[in-house]
Design a protein that fits this description.
The chain is of the alpha/beta class. It has ten helices and seven strands. Strands 3-2-1-4-5-7-6 form a seven-stranded mixed sheet, with helices on both faces.
Length: about 260
């Protein structure tokens, strides 16, 4: 990202080098992707879907969605060359681009007003000016396109700070930011209660030691302890609520104006 959108210490190639496998096995990521897939499948069969993944990471979301949305076209924009390379191996039919939407490369031009749907999942907490990011994202959405956003709520952990979180969100904050960026908000959710909250509390309590739990070498493989905990919580997460007053996973759906 440009200086406007991130601090100089953010290194996404290093992030995916050290945490790729931990991210893929993270039950919180699994939960978010389940929610996103559920929301997108509501629109399946309503016409050709063209989905833009804003901050596509290592392609895990697109890999999940491709078999669920037959006929859909997928484009992902990601800052990390390493993340894009991994994504292309995971989902060869999709298009993944190394791109900063604050300084868009020419390769993004063909996707102006292109997407019928877009996802911005766990990105805005890394951005210094989320409203400006959301405004730029509108350039790639067709009129009336639907945007799904996920951002973290609840307390921030040492690991969150280590990977560059600037802030966490609540229902009112994400609604306000989307509206400031020119979107019409459909709905906000506070997902994940009760077991995602418990998972997050354990992460907060683990403190800086979690950095080593999640990273054990250049492959980004998590430690045995971390892997066991993630497997247990993935089972428990089936019982999480999509919305309640208490959930710490903030989700919003919004639309770009039709004209």
């Amino acid at each position: 990202m440009s200086d406007q959108t991130r601090a100089s210490q953010d290194d996404w190639d290093a992030h995916w080098e050290h945490y790729a496998q931990s991210a893929a096995e993270n039950p919180a990521q699994w939960m978010r992707h389940e929610i996103i897939a559920r929301l997108l499948c509501e629109d399946a069969g309503k016409g050709a879907m063209q989905l833009f993944d804003l901050g596509s990471g290592q392609g895990d979301l697109v890999q999940k969605l491709e078999p669920l949305l037959p006929g859909a076209r997928f484009v992902g924009a990601e800052l990390s060359e390493r993340g894009v390379a991994i994504s292309k191996r995971k989902v060869p039919p999709a298009t993944f681009l190394v791109a900063d939407i604050f300084a868009p490369p020419a390769s993004l031009n063909e996707f102006t007003n292109w997407a019928t749907h877009a996802v911005c999942s766990e990105v805005l907490e890394h951005v210094d000016d989320p409203v400006a990011f959301l405004k730029r994202a509108r350039d790639y959405l067709a009129p009336g396109a639907r945007l799904i956003v996920t951002v973290p709520g609840g307390p921030m952990s040492a690991f969150d700070r280590h990977i560059g979180h600037r802030q966490h969100f609540d229902r009112l904050k994400i609604r306000s930011m989307l509206e400031q960026a020119g979107y019409s908000v459909e709905r906000t959710y506070l997902a994940g209660f009760p077991f995602f909250n418990l998972y997050r509390l354990l992460i907060v309590g683990r403190g800086g030691r979690l950095v080593q739990d999640a990273q054990t070498g250049p492959t980004g493989a998590p430690s045995g302890m971390a892997r066991f905990a993630m497997k247990v919580f993935r089972v428990l997460f089936h019982a999480n609520l999509l919305d309640s007053p208490f959930g710490w996973q903030v989700v919003a759906t919004a639309r770009k104006a039709s004209s």
